Amino acid sequence: METEATVPSAASSAAPHSLFDDIQALVAGTLLISLGLALLGKASLITGGTVGITFLLHYASGVSFGKLFFLINIPFYLLAWKKLGWVFTLKTFCSVLLLSLWSELLPLAFKIEHINPAYAAVMGGLLAGVGLLILFRHRASLGGVNVLVLYLQERYGWRAGYVQLALDGAITALSIPLISPSAIAMSLLGALVLNLSIAINHQPGRYVAI
């Protein structure tokens, strides 16, 4: 990321994150996101980002979710490595692995018998948004679209939450033939809560993670 040499950045006076700081952030952030996704999934709501894109392609092609998710992420990992550095890319790779692990283990910890779709949208979006904020502030993401929106924020100053909200809205629109109108409405609510929490709390220049 380019910086002005004559203007001290917030990072210059901030203490670097330690290895322990980063590990706990990746674990905590992905745990929160996995719970948020579990709430959304129980209510049969669609998610945004690369996960949402992968589900749509899976429904349309029949190719397994795992294979598509891996293939879709390849160009984004290359973008992350070239534009955001190998440390960011490594943390993102670890975050993706952790989220996959928690998603597999979560059903063993508890089961949700019933959940109101509106509550699932709000709480699922909020939990996922807070989890992503933790990852972002430790220079990590969940790959895919997260990498793109973070690059656009660092390069052009576009707020990550607003960019991702627009992309998530487009993904939700593409799901219209696949889920009910009420589920689409609740999915949009979840995307709004998730991305506004990021846009409001992750503004360029307000917090610089190292």
Q: How many strand elements?
A: 0
Largest sheet, if any? none
Span between termini? 12 Å
Please state the CA-atom Rg, rounded to the nearest Å: 17 Å
**What oligomerization state is this entry in?**
single chain
Class per helix and strand makeup: mainly alpha
Strand content: under 5%
Q: What is the 3D form?
A: globular
Low-confidence stretches: 1-13
Query: What portion of residues is helical?
Result: over 70%
Helix-strand sequence: HHHHHHHH
Number of helices: 8
Mean pLDDT: 79
Characterize the structure shown.
The chain has 210 residues and is mainly alpha-helical. 71% of the residues lie in helices and 0% in strands. It contains 8 helices and no strands. It has helices at 19-42, 49-61, 65-84, 86-109, 117-137, 145-156, 160-174, 181-201. Helix 2 packs parallel to helix 7, helix 3 runs antiparallel to helix 4 (86-109) and helix 6 (145-156) packs antiparallel against helix 7. Residues 1-13 have low confidence and may be disordered.
